[in-house]
User: Fold this.
Amino acid sequence: MSGLEHCRDKLQSWLANVAAAEKVEIESVKPLTGGAIQENWRVECVIDGGPHSGRQGFVIRSDAASSVDSSLSRSEEFKILGVAHSAGVTVPEPLWLCEDMEVMGRVFYVMRLVEGIGLGPKIVKDSELGGNREALVEQLGRELARIHSIRPPHDELGFLRRPDNHPALEMIARLRQHLDTLGEDRPMLEWGLRWAELNLPPNPEITLVHQDFRTGNYLVDENGLTAILDWEFSGWGDPMSDLGWFCAKCWRFSRPDLEAGGIASRRIFYDAYEAGSGRSIDDQAVTFWEVIAHIRWGVIALQQAHRHLSGNQQSLELALSGRLLPELEFEVLNMTSPAAWRAA
Amino acid sequence: MMRDAPQGVELLAEARRVLIDTVLPQLNSDSRYQVLMVIRAITLAEREFEANAETEEILGEMLQQLVGSDATVPELTQLLSKRIRNGDFDVSDELYAFLRRAVAFKLKETNPSRVGEGLEGSPG
Assistant:
């Protein structure tokens, strides 16, 4: 059962209980790739009795052995997914949360299986995927608007901390802290962070932000979007930060000319977002968050490289992350020249 | 120490050729991804061998001038990072020119196709 053998019986009886079924028979379990922080399994089962009776496909998501700080716990993520689902965001329907360590030895939750392809470079390259590209980006703009319609205070999201300061200042402090923890002296990133500190956008309204909304973190089939994934970094913040992350050059893969996630033009994305949210986009704020996006991805890449270098998790993929820095630093410098700085 | 030919860098080039021409075409997508990463690693190592020691020296000297000390490069980098954070180099053309050259040096190894983008001249 690829990692769930040890708990098959317990899992089956737990599923039968939460699904109000007489019996659940797990037919297959397949590990899904793409989780450095979580572990995901695709589970096919036959449910006998109750509202879910019949053959069903689920995804089980649990904490991975080595988790990254500043990401949400699985039970928090489950709650956010529920709120997003209720707000009409296209997410896999969250079904059941299990905090009983007796079942699997870790906290996990079950969501409905959604088919689709998520790999960023593939989606950008293969224009047969995701249906009409402009329609796909329009939908992503509307989805993001729906995410940003969720505002604090929110009864079900009481565990999310409200920023005490400007969310950008908190992000800058966090990134500096990560660099210090890693013992990394990075003049280019420091230059970008200092620029950011002196060029803050106006105080934003605070909404739910996904904080990893980009090509590579949603699923598409041949017709269009099927699900928005990877909610583990979400929290209260500046809605413009999600637009900056989505449009940042580092997430356009082989199509830097298509500024909305390597899929279509920025204008189409912005128009759909503005129509969906009733909010005007602050261009300068988005540009600001694009600078932060490259710094943040640079810091994450350094963290990944350190996981390999420390010997905790030997991996060529993690090792190569360390060599992503020059391109990210290059983008940071391009966006923060002294001439542009003086003109601001 | 004298070594026999071929040199390490030539061996890496040959190893990369075998992977690309012979191994890669036979693989399924999972193993393909793994081998593409191995090729990437070999390529980076090859370019390190070819890196221009002179440029590295010039960068070291620029760094010493900026920081005003003749400490080692890691020490200077640490000092410079701290000072940038403290605001000692805000809007500094001199620092910016150095950072661009230093990025260009690293980019020559990781993505030489981007080095041409105005990096080595005056800040754009």
Residues 31 and 41 of chain A are 4 Å apart (CA to CA). Chain A has two domains: 5-112, 120-343. The first helix of chain A runs from residue 8 to 18.
